[in-house]
Design a protein that fits this description.
Layout: E1 10-11, E2 22-23, H1 41-46, E3 50-57, E4 62-68, H2 71-79, E5 93-100, H3 103-114, H4 116-125, H5 127-131
Antiparallel strand pairs: 1-2, 3-4, 3-5
């Protein structure tokens, strides 16, 4: 007697009761094959983020709030003295950042954090950091 291995049936539609098609072949895309892997160049290009960041110089009691698409490069340019607004306050330390997928959301958050109410929110969020 020959035993047959069971056939995997994968639902290709959202609801099998509504006329979804069935496939007897395994669905490799759902098993992680042929999907972009985190850390690969393609994945990083497709996963674009917009960052709001906060820099601090404790000795001069200076806080800078900014927006960028490349956080590492932006912090380096600040600390290399390439930015007029932060050059007198070197060195700067990155104390907080937020990542957004939508540029409008990021810009809205930056404007809020730069407002008086936003600065109060920021000091509340980072209360433990500022107490040390």
């Amino acid at each position: 007697m020959v035993e047959h291995s069971p056939v995997k049936r994968v639902v290709l539609g959202p609801n099998p009761s509504r006329g979804a098609r069935y496939n007897s072949a395994p669905c490799y895309a759902m098993q992680g094959k042929n999907l972009p892997q985190p850390g690969t160049e393609w994945y990083l290009r497709k996963m674009k983020f917009y960052y709001i960041y906060i820099l601090l110089n404790k000795s001069k009691n200076f806080i800078y709030i900014g927006f960028t698409e490349d956080l590492r490069m932006r912090v380096k340019t600040h600390n290399n003295g390439e930015n007029k607004s932060t050059k007198p306050y070197l060195p700067l330390e990155l104390i907080h950042y937020e990542a957004y997928r939508n540029i409008k959301d990021a810009k809205r958050r930056e404007l809020y954090l730069k407002s008086n109410r936003g600065k109060t929110t920021l000091k509340t969020m980072l209360r433990e950091f500022f107490q040390t």
